[in-house]
Structure formats: C-alpha cells, structure tokens
Amino acid sequence: MNKTFFVTGSAGFIGSNLVLKLLKENENIHIIGIDNMNDYYDVSIKEYRLNKIKEKIKKTTNKWSFYYGNISDKKLIDKIFEEYKPDIVVNLAAQAGVRYSISNPDAYIESNLIGFYNILEACRHSYDDGNKGVEHLVYASSSSVYGSNKKVPYSTDDKVDNPVSLYAATKKSNELMAHAYSKLYNIPSTGLRFFTVYGPAGRPDMAYFGFTNKLRNNETIKIFNYGNCKRDFTYIDDIVEGVSRVTKKAPERKTGEDGLPVPPYAVYNIGNSHPENLLEFVDILQQELISSGVLPEDYDFEAHKELVPMQPGDVPVTYADTSALERDFGFKPSTSLRDGLRKFAKWYKEFYMGD
C-alpha cells in the first residue's frame, strides 16, 4: 500500500509483466516506468505490452507514470528520483542478447554499465539530507554469468569469473557494482539471475519466437550444437512471481564488528531447475503451433530443421539451483514447458494471425 515503485525497462518482456502483476495485487501504489522503446526488436510488441498496462490501470486504484527515455540519461534518472522518491527500484532495463553483444557492443556499455551506474548513484543520493530513500533495489542479472561452468546445477555460490560474452560480462559487472554500493552506502540490493525466460508477447530474438517465425514462413531453423544444448526454460509468470516476492523482502541492514555496514546484498537464481534438450523443446513447440493453428496439421517439421555447430558466446547447458530462492521466499518456478509453449502459441496466433 502507498509505495512508489520505479520499474526500468517497463515496456520490456519481464518489466511489463511485472508492472501488470504489481497493479493487480496492490492498492494505492504508484509505478513509474521508463523504456527507450528501441528497435532491437519489433516495437509493436512493446507498444502492445504498454497498452495492456494502460487497460489494467483503469481498473485499479493505482497510478502509472511512463517516461520514454534511456537510463543512460543521468539527468532524467535524477529528475525521476527527485520528483517521485521511489521506495522500491526494479532495474530491468538492459540491452539483452548474447549474440547481439558481439556485433553491437556499444549498446551494452551504454545501457548495462552506464545506465546501471546512474541507477546506483540515484539510489545512493536518495538518502541525502536524512531522507528515508530507497528501501530496496532489485536488478536483473542473468544465467549468462555462469559462462561455461562445468558444475551443474549452477549455484549462486559458484565462482563466476569467466564470462564468454560481453553481455555476460556486463551482467556480472552489475552484481559487482551493486555489491560495492551496498557496502559503501548501505543500499539493500538483490540481483536476480534469470534463466531463459519465455512466454506470450516475449522477445522475438529468443529461440522459441524466432523458430516460430521461421517455421511459419516455411524457412529452415538452425538448431545449435547439433541439438545437444540444454536450457532451463522459465515461464514468464514464474519469473514475475519470483521478482514480486523478492521486492517485498530486502536484505537486512546490519553493522559489522568494524562498525561499518555489512553489505545488505543478495543474489538469487530464478529458473525452472529442469533443463530441456533443445530438440525436445522444438518438438513440443511445433506440436503446440500445430494444435493452435499457427502451422497446418500436415506440417513436415523434419524438412525444416538443420543441426549446426555451436555459436560463439553460447553455452551447452543452463541449469538453475533455486534452493536459496525456495528457502528465503518459499517459491519455486513450476510451469511445464508444454503449458508455457501452449500459451505462447495461442498468443502468437491471436497477435499475428488475428484470431
């Protein structure tokens, strides 16, 4: 009740779904959103998500303010913090994607490093002049930080100093920067390592979405590492349930024996803890696409797939150890891949084929 949330990347896949969940489950809250609406992927999907928020807000006692802007714009971020004094900050704005970071590194430095630095600085100065300031900073990290770790499942206790992409390096940097700011300025912060998020109105650069577009256009899909990749696919509703729970419980501020703050800092995995083989995943996807009418019943799936070697920056397996999330928040993602892909296929049919 009566809290002010600042959600960056609020037209994004996770951001928009989080805003919808917060609006649905709370009363008299004010959510400030920001998104640069860039054209890394189809902007009409971002607009669709924003429209869903506008429809939702009409049915609640909550307030919604949206800024078209970039978190790398320090003046704008400072202005938002000054004007609204957010209680809870959820930083989901980032340039996403492993492969894109190879061809467009500038976007990652601007958004993921400079942008995140601006958020941290604004949180730090929210306590100036004795103000109550930010109660909790929650930010998106990624399973990519685990690089090519051989030990599975991936635990937040693992050492993650060997990123295999610039994207992963920026996400690990976010965790390090947040730790430093938590220690120096006693900012309660929680990082969330997301594992392969999917679902309706998701990101078209993700495999399940790209595969669907190609299959529908009668093109061949490339399945990397000859289909031997495994991914811990996590349905969007499970992700936002986890984020929502985490926002409510900030790491505790404590003083160490040296009289200085013990950093109120935590990092959790949010994943399904059930890695799926890519070939199996694609098989379930095409079954659900046929069942929802996106593909014809007699679709020859075998003729449209090609097994190819691994891509630079990719890893063979992702697998989340979510025991800490279960212990501290009593939550474990549980949506099955089939259920999740069925919901995606139905949305896709409606969005692209007008049914």
TrEMBL record:
Q: Keyword check for NAD, yes or no.
A: yes
Q: Name one Pfam family in it.
A: Epimerase
Query: Could you tell me which residue ranges the NAD-dependent epimerase/dehydratase domain spans?
Result: 6-257
| Keywords, alphabetical | NAD
Query: InterPro entries recorded for this chain?
Result: Epimerase_deHydtase, NAD(P)-bd_dom_sf
Is NAD among the key words of this record?
yes
Q: What is this protein called?
A: Protein CapI
